[in-house]
Amino acid sequence: MPKRHYPPAKRRYEQRHPTVSFRCQDREEYEFISEMAKRHGMSKAQYVKQALYKGIKECDRAYWKGYRQGFLSGVKQAYQRFAFFYICSRCGELIIAPRSSEPYIEASAYLTKTRGWHHKDCNNPIQRFRIADEHATVLLTHYANEFTVEPLNE
């Protein structure tokens, strides 16, 4: 049987507007979709498209919210577990820095005494670190052995 001939305009329209179709699992599912579409004053196709779009959008939003919360928690835990601490040689306050591969207790004592490690501004011992990856940016604040982590909207 030969293929059916479609005019060029119909072929162009079909290429620009591809079709997606599916079968309902049962009559109950079909009636639910029909009822909801009627209730919202839409065709079944419009209702399914909108529900799918909103569902994906909400799922994506929830995913990234969870990702950011996990990232914030992970950053805070990492700094609390794997941080390199040393004492300011001027005011005696604790300073946090990335952990070194050397024995860091000996290194911190040596560098504080011999090199005079101290805060950039000894009158302001609050330290802030901006930490980012491709999906989230946070501000880690360290003051008097207290950590706070807050998201930055960029």
How would you describe the overall organization of this protein?
A hairpin with a 6-residue loop joins strand 1 and strand 2 (94-98). This protein has 154 residues and is of the alpha+beta class. The chain is built from four helices and five strands; from the N terminus they run αααββαβββ. It has a domain at 82-151. It is 46% helix and 19% strand. It has helices spanning 8-16, 27-39, 44-81, 104-114, and strands at residues 83-87, 94-98, 127-132, 137-143, 146-151.
Q: Top keywords for this entry?
A:
46% helix; 4 helices; 5 strands; single chain; two-stranded antiparallel ribbon; alpha+beta; three-stranded antiparallel sheet; 154 residues
Provide the helix percentage: 40-55%
Q: Could you give the order of the helices and strands?
A: HHHEEHEEE
- The best one-word shape is elongated
- Indicate the radius of gyration in whole angstroms: 30 Å
Spatial separation of the terminal alpha carbons: 61 Å
Approximately how much beta-strand content do the residues carry? 15-25%
Strand order of the largest sheet: 3-4-5
The biggest sheet amounts to: 3 strands, antiparallel
Instruction: Quote the average pLDDT.
Output: 77
Count of strand segments: 5
Kindly name the structural category.
Answer: alpha+beta
Low-confidence stretches: none
Helical region count?
4
